[in-house]
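#help-structures
NK: newbie question, is this the right format to request a structure? protein is RNA polymerase sigma factor
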Amino acid sequence: MEIEEAIAKAKKNDQKAFNFLLDNFWDYVYGFQLKRIENENDAEDITIQTFSKAFDKIEKYDEKYSFKTWLITISKNIHIDLLRKEKSSINSKITNHDDDTVYQVIDESPSPEDKLIKEQNLATLLRDIKKLKPHYQEVINLRYFQELSYTEISKELGEPMNNVKVKLLRAKKLLAEIIKR
């Protein structure tokens, strides 16, 4: 299958075309992010987000541009958005009064109310996860609750790693749709 053909099929929601594109461009996008941020986990997360966003918006892809370039642009934008979120979430402020430096540090330990809300949110999330098909439930459980790596999940399920990545992408997308409802 050629890239152009795969893109055309992906625009028609062909799963094999998505797998083909993921197989062909995963290393390129992952390598690009790994050079930028020098952290394997973050690079992998951004790469997953890149493909998820690209596949969600595949119908907007313009063939006059290189598919690789389009993916890298999406990847860069996701990374920039993450950096902006990190900058805006800095909680400590430094003020200067008469040569005395005062640090205002926010107590980040959860209050009893926060703990209760977290437990309720977890219960709601688990209920929503149970609405997914069993193979999607399993891959989410392995990745986020048992915290297995993609390699470990691949061995556990007896499936190629790229299938695990795509399955996880689709599971997260379906779960997001369930949560929005």
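mod (FA): yep, format's fine, and the tokens are attached above. The chain has a mean pLDDT of 85.
NK: thank you!
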